[in-house]
Amino acid sequence: MSLEEVDADMAAILRDNWDALIAIVRDGQRNSKARSEFNTKVAIALDSLLEATKTEGEA
Amino acid sequence: MPRYFLTRLTIEGFRGINNENDPLDLQFDPNSVNSIFAVNGTGKTSIFEALCFAIHGTIPKLQLLQAQERPQDYFCNRFHSKQSASITLQFQPDDGAPPLSIRIDRDALGSRTVTSPSGHPDPETFLSTLKEAFALLDYRTFSRFIEESPLERGRTFSALLGLADYSECRQALQAASDSRALNTDLEIKVLATAISAAQKAAQQALVTLTSSYERVTGKPLKDVDRLDECADAVTAALGGVELLKTHILEKGLHDVDFGEVKAAIRSAETGEKRRELEKTIESIVELEALAAYDLATVAIEQHDIGVLIDDRDRLLALTRGDIFKRLYECASDVISNGGWAEDEKCPLCESDLGSNLSEHVVEQLAQYADAALTTSEIKDTWQASAWKKCLSAHEEAAPLDVAPDTRQLPMLDANITSGDISKGNLADAATWTTTLTERVASALEAAQARREALERELPASLVHLTEQVEYGLQFKVALERYRESQLEEAVHQARLDIRERWKAFILNATATFSGSEEAISRARIQSIDAEYKSMFREIMQVGDVVPDLLRADDREDLHVQLSDFHGQHRLSARALLSESYRNALAISIFLAAAQVHSGAPRFVVLDDVTSSFDAGHQFFLMELIRRRLQQPQNINGLQFIILSHDGLLEKYFDRHGGTSNWRHNKLQGSPPLGAIFHQAQGAERLKTTVESLLSAGQGSQAEPLIRQYLEYKLQQVIRKVDIPVPLDFAIKDTSRMVSNCLDAIGSAVELHKKAGSLVLESQQVQDLDTSHVPAIVGNWVSHYETGSGSSLSVHALRGVIRSIDALAECFRYDDASGGSTARKWYKSLSRR
């Protein structure tokens, strides 16, 4: 099963932030700042998705 | 996509290679094994480091230096006048496209510049495609492979199989789906706390709604799901009073202006006592709301926080303070970055620990994490508590008249937020809360007594009405607060839900990706299984020691075990294999993986990888490379470049050098001050340089080159006519190489002379004995090798060059058998 089939919205967020995800580990080194930046981007995307869903529901 | 052979390498001013204005210029044949021999201190490692720097931008040895050792000062040759380095690589694509060259410069300020003399549009990116784990291999890489932890080995192996990106992606997903990190980064705990606080606020508002509804309507509030109807009932009850009709009827409760309503009552009956009654009723309503706080819940919360503080203090007592925390964090970094591999030694004093360092560090840091977690729990419990709201309401309630400077909430809040709350602070705050709640009872009693007194003095109808209006207002405010809390809870809940959805998704994605990565890795292991086992068998010449690579089920760990060890099965390779076997296994795995790799480099540089092997195993490894792995014998094979300082291996190189599938080079020179040359740069070039130096009267500068020329020509004679040399020939004192060669040649000639089998012409033998050898010994060996006396004269040095050329000619003859005459080497001292 593809990730789109698991949850299309979440898969889109993952795809949009793929570069930030990959930056978490470079040359074998884990970067906790990059992880926190990735999660911050995800949190913003989740709130935007929530807002969009709400607006859609209201319309 | 084409793959690339390394065909040329020029180096100037880098590490041990000075070669100012005359770069060391090495050429490699894609269709041959390329070997380079150099005795210690003649620049072999600098060649490997130049390749590391060119491709990876770093030198592993310098990376290990500490900042105060100024590693940046050791890239360029310290005797090069410009303190700059240049490395040029030439690559031949395997699809027949034109070669491309990349030049890497490092200037005196340490800046790295990458350009392409052949015009590649993005040389830096091209170099990054060559960063494959199998391209540059040294002894350390192999010895570490078996020694490192299964996880590190698994990651190294992933890189080796071309799965480094997958491995890093898996690690990134694992980091991004780590529960603790997600809870922090996505504020999941914060949202849960906010939801709990909103629920408690709604509950408190509901208590007020219930009591005020009953006061206004005289009926109990039965159904909290029908609060709109209750609000209408409140408006109806108040609107039923004639005096208030115009202000209330036909309005929703939300729109009722209670200020206007109170003003209407005041204007109906003005006077001081009326206003005092109104104030008193306001106080009673407020005090009743305070009295409605569930003090039993507050007491439980105080107890729970107390227990958490005890827990935190207990956990903190197990730790050693902030300085040690920083120490453990640094140690953890050092260990996880591979900076300290000896897990049973202390990295500070290097003494034996007798226990596992990494486990100890993890354990210590876990204690700090537990303490931090408990501190965070104290904060969360406090933020969501009814106690906090109760204390806040009491301190701010007008009827209790708590002076701002005596309020304890701000200090308590700050102590809890900063994590500094003590049991003493907690006890003081609990006592203060009790004091305030007790004060409510007496204040309420006094207010009610005062109301009764005032009611007796004022008309009853308006007294009751004032009270009803006040409770109506309280209902309105509580209803608004209730709805706000519900809305707030819903907003937080939605944000929490979508985060939980992400959490579930990213965990799923991580598991899916890890599963796929595992499957690919297993398939790759399977694809090289037969090959590395066969290579290992071939190098070590054993059949009953069979290694096995085992990938862990749910981790990147790669275990090495022996499926067969002289008839015993499934045993630890680390525990049983000797150093040479371990290295043979690592070499077999790396080379087998390199064979199936499809990355950009189609070359493997091996730097002194046979150090732990005896002559036999060296031979078997070299034969394996020459016969099975080198392209084009192996159509999918690679180009091998072998660097070695091993004297025994050099004999093997010498034997194969010059054959169709082997190209051998030998480095000579006097680094790091002087230049390094190699034989393939051409004896003639050496001779030309020597002659021009001698013509300029620079005898001392010419001497090292003459030595190089002498050694080259004498070793050429030895090789060409197959003169036997002692086993330790190549590992004798190198400054005595010329006399070692002359001794070997002289002994062989003498032997054949006595046996009557010498093929040399009598004139050649006589010239050797009476002219050339004595001239070289007299003009060179006795001066140069003993180090006695001053530099030789230019004239004498010219004589040495002439003598060595003439000596070499004594081992050649004119062959007229093919029609025309050709000057040829004797096949041996007894055969043309």
Walk me through what this model shows.
The complex is a heterodimer of chains A (59) and B (832). Chain A has one domain (3-57). Chain A has 4 helices and 2 strands. Chain A has helices spanning 3-6, 8-16, 18-22, 32-58; strands spanning 25-26, 29-30. In chain A, strands 1-2 form a two-stranded antiparallel sheet. The longest helix of chain A is centred in the C-terminal third of the chain and has 27 residues, at 32-58. Chain B has 832 residues and is α/β, with parallel strands linked by helices. Among the domains of chain B are: 1-132 and 653-680, P-loop containing nucleotide triphosphate hydrolases (Rossmann fold); 295-443, no CATH class; 681-825, no CATH class. Helix content of chain B is 59%, strand content 11%. Chain B is built from 28 helices and 16 strands. A 6-stranded mixed sheet of chain B has the order 7-11-12-3-13-14, with helices on both faces. In chain B, strands 2-1-4-5-6 form a 5-stranded antiparallel sheet, covered by helices on one side. The two termini of chain B are 50 Å apart. In chain B, 37% of the residues are buried. The model of chain B has no long low-confidence stretch (mean pLDDT 88). Chains A and B meet through α2, β1, β2 and α4 of A and α6, α7 and α19 of B.
What would you give as the CATH superfamily of one domain in chain B?
P-loop containing nucleotide triphosphate hydrolases
| Mean pLDDT over the full residue set of chain A | 89
Strand order of the largest sheet of chain B: 7-11-12-3-13-14
Rg on CA atoms of chain A, Å: 14 Å
User: How big a fraction of the residues of chain A is strand?
Assistant: 5-15%
Please estimate the helix content of chain B: 55-70%
- The domain tally of chain A reads 1
Count up the helices of chain B.
28
> What is the rounded distance between the termini of chain A?
33 Å
The poorly predicted ranges of chain A are none
- Low-pLDDT runs of 5+ residues of chain B are none
Net shape of chain B = rod-shaped
Query: Mean of the pLDDT scores of chain B?
Result: 88
Sheet with most strands of chain B = 6 strands, mixed
Query: Quaternary status of these chains?
Result: heterodimer
Number of helices of chain A: 4
Spatially, the strands of the biggest sheet of chain A line up as 1-2
